[in-house]
Amino acid sequence: MSTARTWAVALTGVDGHLVEIEADFSAQTPEFTIIGLPDKALGEAVQRVRNACTNSGLDIPRRRLTVNLSPASLPKHGSGFDLGIAVATAAAGGMLSARAVRGTVHIGELGLDGRVRPVAGVLPAVYAAARAGFERVIVPHANAAEAALVPGIEVHAAASLAEVAALHGADVEVPDVDAVELAAPDEPETLPLDLADVIGQEEAVDALIIAAAGGHHMMLSGPPGAGKTMLARRLPGILPLLLDDEALEVAAIRSLVGEPVMKLDPVVPFVAPHHSASMAALVGGGTRMARPGAIVRAHRGVLFLDETPEFQRAALDALRQPLESGRIEVHRAGFTASYPARFQLVLAMNPCPCGNYGVRGAECACPPMSIRRYASKLSGPLRDRIDIDLQVARVAAARATSGERSRVTSASARERVVAARGAASDRLRGTPWRVNGEVPGERLRLGVLRLPATVRAPLDRALERGTVTLRAYDRVLRLAWTIADLAGANSPGIDELGRALFLKKGLLA
Amino acid sequence: MAAKDELGRAGEERAARHLRAQGYIILDRNWRCRQGEIDIVAQRDDVLCVVEVKTRRSVRYGHPFEAIDERKRRRLWRLAYAWTAAHPDAARRREIRLEAIGLIGADADTAQLEHLVDLL
Fold this sequence. Notes:
The structure holds 2 protein chains of 2 kinds. By secondary structure, chain A is α/β, with parallel strands linked by helices. Chain A contains 23 helices and 18 strands.
């Protein structure tokens, strides 16, 4: 009868902290307490662990058992500690090798029958364990695939507590149980979305490619049925594929929200929250335990807000911090969690509530005041971060039914985007930025990237006339560089600048 | 006498023998007062030990120690002080300690015996 230790992982945000589980028996009448800031679900581990041990052939000594989760000041949530607590308990009771247990990280919830049940956030937890230098981690059978995505650590998937105990040298019979599986991934049949499906919107497709190449945030405005959503949905298809470590970040977030992760998906995520989404849904919330919101799920991908003016203003303004810093912080009464949130923003809106304002051949029924109110839903600071403001018009009926397909396919567009991004990152080598959309204006206006006066002339004139603000001026420069990268030019010329000014025009109004 | 009382009696007998073998001096057995009963009061060196004995035929309805819960321990402490109040000479300048002996088996003489010293 003694003390035994093993390890588990507590998650705050996507960051995993290694937690040491100590179990100690003292010569007192039987009791089982867990200390170290457990929440309700973790406190209930007492019952689960006791029954699971009994039903797995592990006899817990009838003495006072104290389980301490260290660091004791870090709040711990959820049922993922069950397995670690059971293993530490059995080792303290002398049934397992304390030495084998000490160097292993255990993640999993226990059923009363001793089966190991899946938990959310296994991927970031295993990642944290690997980074902390552990060589072996035991995860629930149902989470095996996502745990295996983490390199540099030996992953054991266990279906039952008895199986784990046998692995640590216990003399127990390993029953042949049906492993608990995750609910089958609810993946709707998605047809590949190709740019070639977009008919008669060459200008918009072009703008989409520029947005992808420079990582520029984008706003699409136009009447209903013009194809705004269609365009936005095709943005992930032309963005460069994720590198392995980026894909791992994305998968870690999916794991955290409890979605099954089977493989690393190199295509960037596309998140389109409904416009009724609250601020907590966008940013992340939760009362005791943080839950990442839509912004976080769009990390490394595209956040698409359809019907932008219908969103709550506060929810929209919550986008400002992550747009600036690439991270979002969730503050709640009991905790703060910080998540990565580096996404490309695509907004879509109608010109007015009825959608017909300024559309040829249609009549707008909105009173002027409501049109203004509609447009002013987007605060200035948010608009400031949108580089491309594109008007999308309805396609003429003759073209829509002609059967012709656009010549630009997603595959060819992605090639151009990758090439342009390569040029930009070569130029930005040695700076913290990787795409043109991230470069601050001073650098383009004053630094080595300053354009010659002859090229700048039209833009300078616009600034003098007051038709562009200094902020808009910077954005035009950024766009011009991206357009030059796409064209394979060394630096933007008059043409590129003119095109950039055109894409920006919406903000001049 | 009911069978369970007989087993309990036999268990206490076995516990007393065990304590004597360990060098305890038995001071009192089945001491009663208004608050309840102490199974055994014993002395070892300079420590006064209040011992609760619990015997069970099997662990089907739980381990004997599981019956000695928080409430029971608090009552035992109260009884311990009641005993010292009633026996001031024996208790003078002695530390008090709570102990528990659990017996599992149908026959007290061959039952498995567990002894917990110094309960809180």
